[in-house]
Design a protein that fits this description.
With 363 residues, this protein is α/β, with parallel strands linked by helices. Helices cover 45% and strands 18% of the residues. The chain contains twelve helices and seven strands. Helix 8 packs across helix 12.
């Protein structure tokens, strides 16, 4: 499986699209907003630049893409007005893999820019947008050209499925039954990828440039702990049941593994220190309920079903990976089963995603 070709969120604005099923990711951006605001404020106040280049890596498509950008610009505009500075000009780079739905992003760009101008009022500098398709595990921008880099819920994705997972049969990810060599293979791939990411961004950021990165992670030292792998284990149950019933092939299931790693704060810190290009300003851990609609009110009957909500969220993320490996014919059935499994579990226990957020300064 060529991850660069098939890893992308569901495009468009349909019922299974990421745009319609990314409330959880928006809640994480909101939850980590104090860290992001602190970083962009410190960046601006350090030099009061006439222009600010911002890159959102793993921008996907839908409302979250522009939500993050508007929040950053509003913070800078508020600070510059208080101190009587002229507004900087902004260059915003929206990056994701080539399969991302950039068309939907740019179709809605004009409406967003009009809304942003009304929110910020007169005197705000122009904001220019550029789409940048490509993997962030390589260089994307000119040297010393960026001031601020943001990435939320993207860096836990790996550039490839780790090598040496043949013994991970019927597990589609790290699991409690995965052999030690499988856990090591995942960790080694994360180390390679994260170190390369830091190296590339250090070349692209100006001196004193800032990054805020949020990944799905874990508090536990155990990489196969329930807090980071459980939602994939439940999907593996649905696939295994379909295997027993002859709906999918055993070879297909045994060769399917999710290209993702959920690090602990200690693992993130270790890689940052080892690579050496950045100083850590803040490193924090938060949690968010699997069911993004848990605390919402005035919901339709469908959205009151936690299994329905979680299954739709995971489908918007994982469907392209499953479709490329098993074919599109299994999708409705596997996620029907997954919804039933999730509904049973969330009715009995509280499940949360653990988020690891790190704020970095280029040394």
């Amino acid at each position: 499986m060529e991850v660069v070709q098939v890893l992308h969120m569901n495009g468009g604005v349909g019922e299974t699209s990421y745009a319609k099923n990314s409330l959880l990711q928006q809640k994480v951006i909101t939850m980590t907003k104090p860290i992001t605001e602190d970083a962009i404020t410190k960046l601006y106040c350090s030099k009061y630049p006439d222009e600010i280049a911002i890159a959102d890596l793993g921008c996907s498509s839908g409302p979250n893409t522009f939500f993050l950008v508007s929040e950053l610009l509003k913070v800078v505009d508020s600070v510059r007005q208080k101190i009587g500075k002229k507004s900087p000009e902004y260059q915003v780079f929206l990056n994701d893999l080539p399969g991302n739905d950039f068309n939907t992003i740019f179709r809605s760009l004009s409406d967003f820019q009009n809304k942003l101008r009304k929110q910020l009022g007169p005197g705000n500098g122009p904001c220019f947008f550029t789409g940048v398709p490509g993997s962030f595990y390589g260089r994307l921008f000119r040297k010393n050209s960026l001031h601020f880099v943001h990435s939320s819920y993207s860096l836990h994705w790996l550039s490839q499925v780790p090598q040496g997972l043949e013994s991970n049969k019927r597990n589609i990810y790290m699991a409690s039954t995965s052999p030690p060599d499988v856990l090591k293979a995942y960790y080694v791939q994360f180390q390679k990828n994260f170190s390369l990411f830091l190296k590339c961004r250090s070349e692209e950021l100006v001196d004193g440039g800032r990054m805020v990165l949020t990944l799905i992670g874990r508090r536990s030292d155990d990489p196969s702990s329930k807090e980071c792998c459980y939602f994939w284990e439940l999907l593996a149950i649905a696939l295994s049941d379909m295997l027993v019933e002859g709906l999918i092939e055993e070879e297909k299931l045994n060769s399917f593994n999710i290209p993702m790693y959920t690090p602990s704060p200690a693992e993130v810190k270790y890689e940052v220190v080892k690579e050496g290009s950045f100083n850590i300003d803040r490193l924090e851990v938060t949690e968010v309920n699997w069911n993004a609609y848990q605390d919402e009110t005035d919901l339709s009957d469908a959205f009151k079903d936690g299994g329905y909500n979680v299954a739709k969220c995971i489908r918007a993320v994982a469907e392209p990976l499953l479709a490329s490996h098993f074919g599109e014919g299994i999708l409705d059935e596997v996620f029907r089963r997954y919804r039933e499994i999730i509904s049973d579990r969330v009715s009995k226990e509280k499940n949360e995603f653990v988020n690891v957020t790190v704020s970095l300064i280029k040394a």
